[in-house]
Amino acid sequence: MPVTDVSHDLAARTLTIVADFAAPPKRIWEVYADPRQLERVWGPPTYPATFVDHDLAPGGRTNYYMTSPEGERYYGYWEVVSVDEPFGFTFDDGFALDEQFTKNTDLPVSSNVVTFVEHDGGTRATYVGTYASAEALQAVLDMGIVEGSSAAINQIDELVAG
Predict the structure, then answer these.
(1) Domain definitions of the chain by residue range
(2) Which family is it part of (predicted)?
(3) Are 44 and 51 in contact (CB under 8 A)?
(4) How far apart are CA 153 and CA 15, in angstroms?
(5) Fewer CB atoms near the end CB (10 Å): N or C, the chain?
(6) pTM to 2 decimals?
(7) Residue range 74-128, pLDDT digits in tens
(8) Pairing status of strand 110-119 against strand 122-131
């Protein structure tokens, strides 16, 4: 399993996930840069993602939805802040209300820093999400973000091996 560590700090309002992959940073970067590859790993296996728009550039926006086993769609977006290809990117990740990707201001938004560094012949990826408040972080923890994100990230090994 690629995910090697998960921690959260309510005082700092952060959720950190660390994963190790048997592929170079450039290959892991390609997973996030290509929406068709990203669709295969962004959601947990039972909630596959569909990326409608994907602009992984500073100021860019990515719109996606995940589909439940019952066919319900859950909408989300990224607003890309910075890009350091192939070593990472930063973005704000939020929930959307509908297929127009209208921001859902009732649910938390996280500011995310994703980094890819060479490690033991492969890549160590670190995902750090920061929330506006401890309550916002607790809300997504209660929604199952740790389990869902871990299941999603753990799909990357199979994708890059194929």
Answers:
(1) 3-161
(2) Belongs to the AHA1 family.
(3) no
(4) 14
(5) C
(6) 0.94
(7) 999 999 999 999 999 999 999 999 999 999 999 999 999 999 999 999 999 999 9
(8) antiparallel
Task: Round to whole Å and give the CA distance between 102 and 130.
Answer: 21
118 CA to centre of own chain = 20
CB 19 within 8 A of CB 4: yes
Mention every residue, 6+ apart, whose C-beta is less than 8 A from residue 115: 87, 88, 125, 126
Residue 74 has which token pair? 């859950």
Residue 96, classed as helix, strand or coil, is strand
71's CB contacts (< 8 A; 6+ apart) are: none
Q: Give Cα 54 distance to the centre of its chain.
A: 13
Q: Starting from the edge strand earliest in sequence, which strands make up the sheet with 61-67, in order?
A: 3-9, 14-21, 122-131, 110-119, 88-96, 73-84, 61-67, 49-54
**Tell me, what amino acid is at 50?**
T
Q: How far is residue 88's CA from residue 76's CA, in Å, rounded to a whole number? A: 20
